[in-house]
Amino acid sequence: MRFLFCALASHGYVYPAISIAQELQQRGHEVAFVTGKAFAQVLAETGIRRIRFGPTDGDSFTKKFFGLVPEIVRQVKHIQYAYNSFPPDVLVATPLTIGPLIASRQLNIPAAVIGLAAYLWPTWNQAQTAPQTDQEAFRKHIHDGLIDYYLQACQIFGIAPPLEAITNYQNTPLLGDIYLLRSVPSLQGDTDLLPERVHLVGACHWEPQATLDSELLQWMQRPGTTGLPLIFVQHGTHLRPGVPDFLPNLFQAVTHLPVRIVTAVSHGHFDANTLPENVYIQEHISHNAILPYADAVIALGSTNPVLGTLVHGLPMLLIPNAGEELFVAELCQHAGVAISRPIHNSYRNEGTPENVTPEKLRQAVQEVLANVSLRDNARRLQAAFQQVQHNHTASTLLEMLAVEQGPLFRSQTGAMGDLSPLALAHL
User: Fold this and answer.
1) Is the pTM of this model over 0.85?
2) How far apart are CA 319 and CA 329, in angstroms?
3) Residue 208 belongs to some domain of the structure
């Protein structure tokens, strides 16, 4: 069987797709990727084929322009070009990629979507139902915006939109034929509200092998500091425009605390000479390399850092500033594995800088280290993720989709078995 992964060109989307693709390869299937040129090397190093976009290999699957119709057209054209040399049995999309959903209907190939740690779309039945909360209104806003792009692309490619599905959020086209939610029941909570095409598949977490550099290791092993708790701060790649950076306040908050702070930050201007002695900054630090040394994590709340932290069984202080981050942070707080201090409330489009004053952050850092229940719950969630065999569920569901060539529902896949070898010879 052949699986074509269509991933938005960002680590948060390419890496989980690689994790599932590698499992499918181990089962004997063929896999390939269409994504941006920036990921050509990492895919080559993992032994996965990336299909170029035409003879000149133009840009496509660009995160910055994901919702613009010209970018959706480029995605479809890239998939069409790949189809000539690699006709797949299944297209595997990632969130915010509309092109694969259009190509699925155009080429009559089923599509799966690898989701995030939180389900983003509305869960009630009728699209015309008025939202009852700010969160519901925000879910409707982001869903309906993407559906608008989807309908525009349908019109460009002469595809009749599935109007009945668009009027029912439980059957939205954004699900594809199957939606792989990167979660477990103990994190997600009530799964009965989710559409039937949504399946929980565990973390699907992957990163390239990496080690800590010698300078950071020496800093961590300074005399008199090795017994201090170590907190890893995953700053993320962007903050919402107009939202203040929380790092200066965090550094002020921990100056006199008996902790070590290791920070991965790809932007911002920090003078190493003015940093507290217990703070270390580096542009990029692999999660898999640093987390075995960590006692807790501070992050914005996007899926990959959060799932990487939970896989290691660590408590978190989350400082969300955008939609997905708020959803994930709320799930983690409800599961008792994180403290959430939003710096922006996307539901109301309001900044909340009062949550991240130096004093508030100092209190939160002390609580995340001292609260035994946070750590115990994080370890319970770690065990829950470990029970979902590494990418096993996701790969089996994709095999079933390749065989069935149509939507798969939770109520029909409870006794699906393990499938393979080669999906039991296609049944």
Assistant:
1) yes
2) 8
3) no
